[in-house]
TrEMBL record:
<dbReference type="InterPro" id="IPR036390">
    <property type="entry name" value="WH_DNA-bd_sf"/>
</dbReference>
<keyword id="KW-0238">DNA-binding</keyword>
<keyword id="KW-0805">Transcription regulation</keyword>
<dbReference type="InterPro" id="IPR036388">
    <property type="entry name" value="WH-like_DNA-bd_sf"/>
</dbReference>
<dbReference type="InterPro" id="IPR008920">
    <property type="entry name" value="TF_FadR/GntR_C"/>
</dbReference>
<protein>
    <submittedName>
        <fullName>GntR family transcriptional regulator</fullName>
    </submittedName>
</protein>
<dbReference type="InterPro" id="IPR000524">
    <property type="entry name" value="Tscrpt_reg_HTH_GntR"/>
</dbReference>
<dbReference type="InterPro" id="IPR000485">
    <property type="entry name" value="AsnC-type_HTH_dom"/>
</dbReference>
<dbReference type="InterPro" id="IPR011711">
    <property type="entry name" value="GntR_C"/>
</dbReference>
<keyword id="KW-0804">Transcription</keyword>
<feature type="domain" description="HTH gntR-type">
    <location>
        <begin position="8"/>
        <end position="75"/>
    </location>
</feature>
<dbReference type="GO" id="GO:0003700">
    <property type="term" value="F:DNA-binding transcription factor activity"/>
</dbReference>
<dbReference type="Pfam" id="PF00392">
    <property type="entry name" value="GntR"/>
</dbReference>
<dbReference type="Pfam" id="PF07729">
    <property type="entry name" value="FCD"/>
</dbReference>
<dbReference type="GO" id="GO:0043565">
    <property type="term" value="F:sequence-specific DNA binding"/>
</dbReference>
Amino acid sequence: MKKSTKSSTAGEAGYDVIRQAIIDGEYREGDRLIEAELAERAGVSRTPIRDALRRLEREGFVHIRAGSGAVVAKYSGSDLTDLFEIRAALETLGAGLAAQHARAKDLDELEAMCDAMDKIAAGRGTDFLEAFSVQNTAFHLKILEMSRNPQLAQMAGSLMKLGVIMRTYNRFDITRLERSIYDHRCILAALRAGSVSRAESAMRSHVLSSIDTFDATSDAPLSREK
């Protein structure tokens, strides 16, 4: 594991090193994260490592268990199904409200985000997974902001855990990636048209498609039994 050269503080250095190791698969789901080992690798003391682990927990990369320390986050099928279903409900509402309140500059900002995702997907660089996931999250958060409902934006935004989003996109083949990009364009088109029903339908379908992705790429499908 390489030490971070980009971070200006010990806390950022520890955060960068741990997160990158998880993204690279050096630490897998359920693996223990030992503070002393992480501190040595990052070249910092244990205090900033604890801060980094708490931040990574908020982002969905890590679970911290009282008395036993931190482990790489492991989500059950029911955990992920619950998460995506709640997100779908809240973001569907947010998209409908955004369609009513959308301003030209907000729509242009969403357009720029879609263009950025197109470029990232076409390049497929070494940091593709993180770059695309971050841009995707920004797109969804912007729509929630456009709803002009701060309570809704806060509730839904708290469920957008980068660790889960990156895990989702890591399962995407080119067809699923192109579908995700297409979904974003459909949502944007509905918002530009000011169509509440289209915006709600497009957003709900898009968020719930994550369950289909896990079903198609996992031995333990997430879909609930009918």
